[in-house]
Write a structure and sequence with these properties.
- The protein is mainly beta.
- Strand 20 and strand 21 (276-282) form a beta hairpin.
- The chain is globular and about 75 Å long.
- The two termini are 31 Å apart.
- Residues 36-42 have low confidence and may be disordered.
């Protein structure tokens, strides 16, 4: 249901599951087209929390999918990957963690392969599950500080997910990636790649795990719902079913191998109901299998393994001791261990187990490890130290799994759904998190409710009164700052239907609150008296299903607006009657997701939409829903908009929206949305709130916690007429033209090698004046074959600034006749050629059809490919001397 709540609005109405992975491609396409944008002088975002693991039993930082070890120093230098928070690194064994991945193509990642030198590494982008598709494999040569694309580049429409990335232990240039559609292999570090051979059929098998045979890199095993073996490093695969259950009875297979007996292959299998089907073992390198055990149900949530069900499609992990082939540890909701090859099992960590930091909590022993184990790995060179990643972080055992210690510490990867602010104290906020529950800020932050944290608010008259929510509208009240809770359900409030069921406090009468998530709206005028409180239905708003969001007008609390999946409804009498004010809103084209209302005029309302309809993002009414007008939707990137907030009492109706990438602002003086996300991690923005005493905007992100920025400021006295970057023989020349400079201080020239993580490389003072002014700057610290991205930071005398559009350039790489960039591209493809000759450029689609022909003389600035649909293409450059060179590129 959580996945459905996240995904359904994004794929409505088509149900096309590839759409959510269009986020970054669509965002980049918008970013390269957008005009110069004004920025707040202090609009650079900063993290505010949670800065570390919260206190309280069953606390956690967020989901971690894998851990990988630096071959040169595995005991201290490790990397962990997350589906929504990027790749993180520790150099002190987990005491502290850092990330450089906030601005990658896709900040989620599914695996990492590290070369023996410890500095060259390859990152599989995206989530191995359905959270987000992969953009391909990235390469770093400096330990993950910066990343470049490789030849394995995908678009969202190709619907790829990488599940495992293995590096040949004898050759770091040879790697194999298992995916949701077969395998991919490289022998040159992903400069090129091939696919493994599979029998013809309606589709290639979807794989979720893969292993080398220890000591024999030619022999490999891969699994999904079926098991396959290769004896030529993944060039060819053979399916093996002897001794294994039929595919129809399998939800997922995880594989375990060991150097203690290289002929052993363990297959941990979940059944069609995601429960424990069994553990199966091969003693002949995967040629056939035998059943080791089918009971107890070690994948379900119970302490004894009694009962049905499990979560094999989400959490399924296995590790075999490198020195004892009979010692196996498996992960599901909890962790179990066998010392006899999987015949008998003992619980070694429990999702409600003992935690020495919180004696008396839980139901242990054994030790507590957060629910939903994603991976289990032995420390290289050790047979006693294990690491388990899970939906709460990463834990470590130094005695073979007997005891566990959480080492997540400052992994700042919280998947937040909501944030609520105190009205009077900037240090007090409450936020709901996936898996972790509801957190309250502090030193440290603390868990004040469990499960999946959802809607929440802090009483604006008393910070001790806090209302929190779990899925489907299960509400609690705390009157002591979160220490204890009183249930708010019942007493006239039925069970909720929506995974996210909002609850808000009346903006004028603090003892009153309202609850959505049901077909009716509900009101309590005495919720602070819980458990003696009562709820009353205040009518059934228009539309299908339940109320997903609503607002109460601060200027007249009898006026309310509600959202259902296909309607906006309004009451002007506190719910006595409701009217449908959907009007011309395009609810059949995209799913309406959120709304905001003016604090001074109950007729002014804004609504935002999820999905990928470019013309359906934001709409506004100034007459209480009688009519609706579009608010420059086509000026926004074509990505889902999740949240909106109105700046109270703003003279020009200033509103902010939060999208799957970025925050944007607009008011009545602006003719377009202004990007407002400098320094903000590229994670989904699920909620925005304003703290008025200090003028701060706060954002809850899904994967990187809570962030903060000053509110929007005015524009600069500057007109940027032109800005270009061009490659010379050994340098790159930047040239720009301005008009109407007044009170301008300087231009700071910034450069990046990934189009997001910019560094200052030079400064030029402003000329100021009424006429035009030309500037140029020569960047000589450049190397051939690297794409450089440039932008100007333009500052006035008061410290306000804005950025120019991004420009890119690249010096030709010595020894390579042709280079094409960027790849993927959106509208323009740049070509570098070592010779100055007339050429004919032809573009073919994957079916071999000629779709574009251009005759020019190299070098030239670019080829316009805006007319091409998204997909994979082949560029052929033919010279008048008969030479022909080809290049593959992706149109995003």
């Amino acid at each position: 249901k959580r996945w459905e709540a996240l995904t359904a609005p994004r794929v409505f109405p088509s149900g096309d599951m590839t759409l959510p992975s269009s986020n970054y491609e669509n965002f980049l396409a918008w970013e390269r087209k957008t005009n110069v944008a004004d920025r707040s002088p202090s609009g650079a975002w900063t993290e505010i929390g949670p800065p570390s693991k919260p206190s309280g039993y069953d606390g956690g930082v967020g989901r971690v999918d894998f851990v990988r070890f630096d071959p040169t120093n595995p005991s201290t230098t490790m990397y962990v990957g997350t589906p929504d928070g990027g790749l993180w690194k520790t150099t002190n064994g987990g005491t502290s963690w850092t990330t450089n991945n906030d601005f990658l193509v896709v900040i989620g990642c599914s695996d990492l392969a590290i070369a023996p030198n410890g500095t060259t590494m390859y990152l599989a982008t995206g989530s191995w599950e359905s959270d987000k598709n992969s953009a391909g494999i990235l390469k770093s040569t400096n330990g993950g500080t910066t990343w470049q694309t490789t030849a394995l580049v995908w678009t969202a429409a190709e619907d790829w997910r990488i599940t495992k990335l293995l590096m040949d232990p004898t050759d770091p240039l040879t790697m194999i990636a298992s995916t949701n559609g077969g395998t991919f292999k490289t022998t040159d570090g992903w400069q090129t790649f091939t696919t493994g051979s599979f029998p013809p059929g309606p589709g290639l098998p979807a794989f979720t795990d893969m292993e080398f045979k220890p000591g024999d890199p030619f022999t490999m095993y891969v699994s999904g719902k079926t098991f396959w073996k290769s004896t030529d490093k993944g060039d060819n695969w053979t399916q093996i079913s002897t001794g294994l259950p039929p595919e129809a009875q399998v939800s997922r297979i995880a594989l375990g191998v060991t150097a203690a007996n290289t002929g052993y292959v363990y297959a941990l299998i979940g059944d069609e109901n995601r429960a424990f089907k069994g553990l199966y073992r091969s003693t002949n390198s995967g040629t056939s299998f035998s059943t080791q055990s089918t009971t107890p149900n070690i994948l379900n949530s119970s302490k004894t393994g009694v009962g049905g069900g499990g979560q094999a499609t989400h959490d399924l992990a296995i590790a075999v001791s490198p020195t004892n082939a009979e010692l196996i540890t498996i992960g599901g909701i909890s962790q179990w261990q066998s010392t006899d090859g999987g015949v008998q099992w003992t619980l070694v960590s429990y999702w409600l187990g003992s935690d020495t930091n919180y004696p008396g909590e839980g139901d242990g022993p054994p030790d507590y490890v957060h629910a939903d184990v994603q991976s289990i790995d032995y420390l290289p060179g050790s047979n006693t130290t294990l690491f388990a990643t899970c939906d709460g972080g990463i834990s470590k055992s130094t005695n073979g799994g007997g005891n566990w210690t959480d080492i997540s510490n400052n992994l700042r990867i919280a998947q937040q759904t909501d944030v609520a602010l105190s009205a009077s104290d900037p240090s007090v906020l409450i936020t709901g998190l996936q898996d972790i529950g509801t957190l309250k800020s502090g030193t440290p932050w603390s868990v004040i409710n469990g499960g999946d944290g959802e809607s929440t608010f802090i009483d604006y008259t008393n910070n001790q009164n806090i209302v929190t929510a779990n899925p489907n509208g299960n509400y609690d009240l705390s009157t002591d700052g979160g220490t204890t809770r009183i249930p708010l359900n019942g007493n006239g409030l039925p069970n909720g239907n929506e995974f996210f069921s909002p609850i808000i406090q009346d903006p004028v009468i603090s003892t009153t609150c309202y609850a959505g998530g049901r077909p009716d709206m509900y009101k309590s005028t005495n919720f602070l008296s819980a458990p003696a409180h009562t709820w009353t239905s205040i009518g059934t708003p228009s539309g299908t299903g339940s109320v997903t969001r609503f607002v109460v007008a601060p200027s007249n609390t009898l006026v309310m607006y509600t959202l259902k999946e296909d309607a906006v409804s309004k009451t002007t009498n506190g719910g006595t009657s409701w009217s449908n004010v959907t009007g011309t809103l395009p609810v059949g084209t995209a799913r309406i997701t959120n709304l905001a209302i003016s604090n001074t005029n109950p007729l002014k309302v804004w609504v935002v939409f999820s999905g990928y309809s470019a013309a359906t993002k934001v709409f506004k009414t100034t007459d209480g829903g009688a009519t609706w007008t579009d608010v420059f939707s086509t000026g926004l990137p074509n990505i889902p908009i999740n949240t909106i907030v109105y700046r109270n009492s703003s003279a020009n109706d200033e509103v902010y929206i939060g999208a799957d990438i970025g925050v944007f602002v607009i008011d009545n003086t602006l003719g377009a949305w202004v990007p407002f996300f400098t320094g903000l991690a590229r994670a989904k923005v699920n909620d925005l709130e304003i703290y008025y005493p200090t003028g701060n905007l706060r954002a809850a992100t899904y994967g990187r916690g809570t962030w903060e920025s000053d509110l929007y400021s005015t524009s600069l006295p500057l007109e940027l007429l032109d800005f270009q970057a061009s490659a010379k023989s050994s340098s790159i020349l930047l040239d720009w033209l301005t008009g109407q400079e007044q009170q301008l201080s300087r231009f700071e020239i910034e450069r990046s090698t990934n189009d997001h993580l910019f560094r200052e490389i030079g400064v030029l003072s402003a000329k100021n004046g009424q006429g035009t002014a030309r500037y140029n700057y020569e960047d000589q610290d450049v190397k051939p074959g690297i794409i450089y991205y440039y932008r100007l930071k333009m500052l006035d005398l008061d410290g306000q600034f804005r950025y120019s559009p991004i420009r890119l350039a690249m010096l030709p790489e010595v020894g390579r006749e042709i280079q094409v960039y960027p790849n993927p591209t959106d509208d323009n493809l740049y070509i570098l050629w070592n010779d100055v000759v007339p050429v004919t450029t032809k573009v073919f689609n994957v079916e071999g059809q000629l779709v574009l022909t251009i005759n020019k003389t190299i070098p030239f600035e670019s080829i316009d490919v805006s007319s091409l649909a998204k997909g994979v293409y082949y560029l052929i450059v033919e010279t008048d001397l008969g030479k022909s060179l080809g290049y593959k590129f992706v149109k995003g």
